[in-house]
Write a structure and sequence with these properties.
Layout: H1 2-11, E1 18-23, E2 31-38, E3 41-45, E4 48-53, E5 58-64, E6 67-72, E7 75-80, E8 83-87, E9 93-100, E10 106-109, E11 111-117, E12 120-128, H2 129-141, H3 147-163, E13 175-176, H4 192-200, E14 204-207, E15 218-219, H5 229-233, E16 255-261, H6 262-271, E17 296-299, E18 302-305, H7 306-313, E19 320-324, E20 330-336, E21 344-345, H8 346-354, H9 359-366, E22 371-374
Parallel strand pairs: 1-13, 15-21
Antiparallel strand pairs: 1-12, 2-5, 2-9, 3-4, 3-8, 5-6, 6-7, 8-11, 9-10, 11-12, 14-22, 16-20, 17-18, 19-20
Helix pairs in contact: 2-3, 2-4, 3-4, 3-8, 3-9
This protein binds zinc ion (2 copies).
Length: about 375
């Protein structure tokens, strides 16, 4: 088994430019409608050529036990173990609309392999690096940002791609299309600025001093200070250091506020081992201040990592103060930033770009001691 896995890893095209992405990976889809949006495709079913498909032609693919039942507009094509939908010319685009359960239609460049696995359709998009990365940047960053910011995101996504190329190798593909890897929904709006940013940064990745690809973590807004990786995830990375960030302070996600009932808070703390003073319960004990980011909240006899409070209470960040509002004990939580706070702060990076910094300045500001290299230089 190990040999087979190793063989797959070695024989897979890491640099030839085609990547295998598992689509709708977190969904149990039983039937899809595939159509040609642009260009043309060749259908191969059960190893045999099963026709060519041009713009607006449609295929219906559904599960039939462990096989695929494939139909087109004119009728049934047959039942097959697997099928491939290969582009006849570059830049062809197909779409998939899951029919069972029904979901929105998505558009993809490249080719498609379909099979049945674990009681669901397995769909693998074979796509070149350029179109894959543009899709990821569109899905992860959205539209309306500057060319420099898109370059930053393109380099981050490329670094992630190569650093995690073997993440799903035992399942027969490179990356999945969900948050487990990087969100990829194919071609969304086809934003030209994003495709151009991917081209202009071709091959560029972020590495440490000894040429290791970094974990290019990022988040929405750090609130003015990013977080050491070990304070958020227990993993120390020399390039994921806390930096003071003046650029995101006026960002959309710079500040937030919420309220928590002090009774619920007290109960929660009791669950963590907190012993309240029975004689004179003092809600003021719950007050807390972080002028700079801290890693822990201490009250009475308990100390809780702030990352735990953030996830248990669904808070937007782990950087917050607690004020006790009145004697009845409502807690006012005032926080800064949005996200885990590790690595690059997106709203800060956008502001840096708007202030004239280039993508190397921005990446080196948020990732301590890194270099930008071409992927070819690492092999
Ligand atoms: Zn994944
Ligand atoms: Zn920031």
């Amino acid at each position: 088994m190990l040999n087979i896995i190793l063989l797959i890893i070695i024989s897979w095209p890491v640099r030839s430019g085609t990547f295998h992405i598992s689509l709708f990976n977190e969904h149990t889809i039983q039937a899809i409608v595939v159509s040609v949006d642009k260009g043309s495709y060749r259908l191969t079913a059960g190893g045999q050529c099963a026709g060519n498909y041009a713009e607006n032609d449609i295929l219906y693919i559904s599960m039939h036990g462990d096989s695929l039942l494939i139909r087109n507009q004119t009728g049934r094509i047959g039942i097959f173990a697997d099928a491939s939908f290969d582009e006849n010319e570059q830049f062809s685009v197909f779409s998939i609309r899951p029919a069972d359960p029904p979901t929105d239609r998505s558009f993809y460049y490249g080719s498609l392999d379909v099979g049945v696995e674990f009681g669901r359709l397995r769909m693998i998009n074979r796509v070149d690096e350029h179109n894959y990365l543009a899709g990821v940047v569109e899905a992860e960053a959205g539209n309306g940002w500057s060319p420099v910011f898109y370059k930053v995101q393109a380099i981050i996504s490329r670094t992630y791609l190569y650093a995690n190329i073997n993440r799903h190798s035992d399942e027969g593909f490179h990356l999945c299309d969900d948050v487990h890897c990087q969100v990829y929904k194919g071609r969304l709006t086809g934003n030209e600025a994003i495709y151009e940013a991917v081209s202009l940064t071709a091959g560029k990745v972020i590495v440490t001093g000894d040429n290791t690809l970094i974990t290019a973590a990022y988040h929405s807004n750090c609130g003015g200070q990013t977080v050491n990786s070990e304070d958020a995830w227990l993993v120390h990375r020399p390039y994921l250091r806390s930096v003071s960030d003046p650029f995101c302070l006026h960002g959309r996600n710079a500040a937030w506020q919420t309220g928590i009932d002090a009774g619920e808070w007290s109960e929660y703390l009791a669950g963590m081992g907190f012993v309240p003073d029975q004689v004179r319960p003092d809600m003021q004990k719950f007050a807390f201040r972080q002028d700079k980011r801290r890693a822990f909240y201490t009250v009475g006899n308990v100390t809780i990592p702030l990352r735990t409070l953030r996830s248990d209470w669904g808070l937007r960040s782990a950087w917050f103060d607690i004020q006790v509002e009145n004697p009845s004990g409502r807690l006012l939580i005032t926080g800064r930033g949005y996200g885990h706070g590790v690595g690059l702060c997106q709203e800060g990076a956008m502001q840096m770009a708007a202030s004239g910094y280039n993508f190397i300045d921005i990446l080196q500001f948020y990732y301590t001691g890194v270099k930008i290299k071409r992927i070819e230089e690492l092999f």
